[in-house]
Inverse folding.
């Protein structure tokens, strides 16, 4: 089983979200990057479990700059076999997906796994775009993934429920909660990952379809109104008359 | 022309009315493409929200995303649409990215507003902690609208409904079974949500939460540890790694308000927090706060809601 896992970076959840240059770019000052949780906890760990039972190889791929190699080493420490970086700023989901598709095109991966979404841009776009570019089936938001021979069995979230589906390899799958459990890398893995050779591939020429032109922060909530636990009628009246939500 | 794809299973959902209203606000003519079992004399009501025509292909399964994609492509070609709108739900997440590549059309997912003066569209970024404004550089564009972002508006009258057969082929993904919990309000669509966390001490105490939800007609949700220890089903877990919701009202009892939890709920219009600890971080994000024991406050609040509802009838 040859598996490609797409890994992106995301700011650590406790990072302060701020913007610079007239609110046109994210302020990275003091921001710690982690592997996007969906990519790490679900996609990568499930890929490693499949490799452990079925044999094969797990390659991780990131579209990013040299500084992103630290998150790639985290993925190697957890157990990935190879790491590829497409040397480019990931301009938008389309640009990113086309880079990954161009790399994967002639490599005969059985599975391409992405996370459900990146927690910074929350687009849930890259996986479907890779699938379309490679003309492969795309199973979105899978919470379970099993493989027997060339048949993949998945559980996925659909509107109002859960669906069980089957598809043949090769396919692109986006991975959501439930698929696997987080793995903590051990010291040996971390040490070994430090010196591993990463493959760097030049980007292909792609015009991005969208761009972020501005950012803004939500207005802070006005102070919270406190209500006595003995006066729930007052809360109900406020929700009805003031907040107008019931 | 703007093309809108909607689900129309068992009638018109609020989300369907929202996306048609949204499309109407963009200014061009609005065509709707749909599948499903909703009768033509119900579909015609989409005209009231701004549609000038509706096409329905009843041979296309709501559960076959590849077939659905081909249906939308067919309708886009037929209408010559340059903008295509979805509700940002699980179906849109499955098909809009593919459509983007197929049509070379920039995709704005999770739009929360109509385009601004400079034609940029607002979306939530950083799990709801900030907004971004996205511009589409391509000639065609796809927008998926976050549910509950705009109110449906009646501006017109009934429109024509055409039964079509797009000839869309079935996809390569084979459906084995579908499990749909009966009678529950799906969390992402709920306008009112009652949620509880580790402060409730154990699954046996969730009756209070369900009673309050029932009195309001609300959906139930929970914090992540509660789903992880198995007190509640996983689909109720809200937050950064669970479902992101933005109901009109979010009531949180016994939840501390960790940043990862807030990331999934801070888009709620009104937040009520019930917590014994006055220092709980959730109070900073709340509109109304009750410092008190959920075991006492929840039943009292349920009682007050019932009294209020009875008085309204
Ligand atoms: C990468 C990452 C992602 C995460 N994603 C999520 C996510 O998506 N969703 C999520 O929820 N969490 C998430 N978490 C976990 C999060 O950090 C918190 O640990 C979690 O939200 C705490 O859950 P809680 O508030 O139910 O429990 P606790 O933090 O234990 O809080 C319980 C609260 O109940 C109050 N309480 C106790 N008794 C009572 C009583 N009788 N009446 C009223 N109040 C009472 C306490 O004062 C306390 O505030 C994530 C963490 C990480 C590291
Ligand atoms: N720069 C990137 N490099 C590699 N994979 C990425 C990148 N950005 C996004 N992905 C993958 O695509 C998934 C969905 O991302 P998004 O469409 O941005 O929500 C992520 O969970 C990753 O698996």
């Amino acid at each position: 089983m040859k598996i490609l896992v797409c890994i992106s970076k995301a700011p650590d959840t406790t990072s302060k979200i701020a913007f610079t240059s007239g609110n046109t770019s994210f302020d990275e000052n003091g921001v710690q990057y982690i592997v996007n949780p969906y990519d790490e906890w679900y996609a990568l760990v499930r890929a490693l479990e499949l490799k452990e039972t079925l044999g094969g190889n797990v390659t991780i791929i990131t579209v990013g700059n040299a500084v992103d190699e630290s998150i790639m080493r985290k993925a190697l420490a957890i157990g990935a076999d190879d790491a590829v970086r497409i040397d480019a700023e990931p301009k938008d989901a389309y640009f990113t997906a086309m880079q990954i598709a161009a790399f994967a095109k002639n490599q005969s991966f059985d599975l391409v796994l992405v996370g459900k979404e990146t927690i910074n841009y929350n687009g849930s776009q890259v996986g479907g775009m890779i699938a379309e570019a490679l003309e492969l089936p795309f199973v979105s938001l899978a919470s379970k993934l099993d493989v027997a021979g060339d048949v993949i069995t998945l559980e996925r979230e659909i509107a109002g429920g859960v669906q069980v589906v089957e598809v043949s390899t090769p396919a692109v799958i986006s991975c959501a909660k439930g698929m696997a459990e987080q793995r903590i890398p051990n010291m040996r893995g971390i040490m070994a990952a430090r010196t591993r050779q990463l493959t760097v591939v030049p980007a292909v020429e792609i015009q991005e379809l969208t761009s972020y032109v501005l950012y803004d922060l939500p207005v802070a909530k006005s102070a919270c109104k406190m209500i006595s636990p003995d006066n729930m009628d007052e809360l109900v009246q406020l929700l009805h008359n003031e907040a107008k939500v019931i | 022309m703007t093309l809108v794809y909607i689900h129309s299973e068992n009638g018109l959902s609020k989300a369907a009315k929202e996306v048609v209203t949204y499309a109407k606000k963009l200014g061009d003519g609005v065509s709707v493409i749909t599948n499903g079992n909703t009768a033509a004399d119900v579909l015609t009501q989409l005209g009231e929200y701004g549609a000038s025509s509706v096409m329905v292909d009843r041979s296309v399964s709501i559960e076959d995303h590849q077939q659905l994609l081909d249906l939308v492509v067919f309708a886009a070609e037929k209408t010559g649409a340059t903008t295509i709108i979805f509700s940002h739900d699980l179906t849109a997440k499955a098909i809009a990215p593919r459509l983007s590549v197929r049509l070379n059309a920039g995709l704005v997912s999770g739009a929360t507003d109509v385009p601004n003066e400079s034609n940029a569209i607002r979306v939530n970024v950083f799990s709801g902690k900030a907004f971004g404004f996205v511009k589409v550089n391509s000639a065609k564009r796809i927008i998926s609208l976050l549910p509950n972002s705009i109110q449906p508006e009646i501006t017109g009258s009934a429109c024509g409904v055409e039964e079509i057969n797009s000839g869309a082929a079935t996809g390569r993904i084979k459906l084995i079974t579908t499990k749909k919990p009966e009678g529950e309000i799906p969390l992402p669509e709920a306008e009112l949500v009652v949620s509880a966390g580790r402060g409730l001490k154990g699954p046996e105490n969730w009756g209070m939460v369900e009673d309050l939800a029932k009195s309001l007609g609300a959906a139930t949700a929970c914090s992540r540890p509660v789903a992880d220890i198995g007190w509640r089903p996983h689909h109720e877990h809200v937050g950064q790694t669970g479902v992101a919701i933005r109901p009109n009202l979010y009531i949180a009892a016994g939840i501390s308000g960790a940043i990862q939890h807030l990331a999934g709920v801070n888009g709620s219009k009104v937040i009520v927090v019930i917590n014994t600890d006055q220092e709980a971080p959730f109070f900073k994000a709340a509109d109304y706060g009750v410092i008190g024991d959920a075991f006492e406050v929840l039943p009292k609040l349920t009682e007050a809601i019932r009294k209020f509802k009875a008085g309204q009838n």
Remarks:
- The first strand of chain B starts at residue 2 and ends at 7.
- Chain B touches chain A through 93 residues (CB under 8 Å).
- Chain B has two domains: 2-163, 187-312.
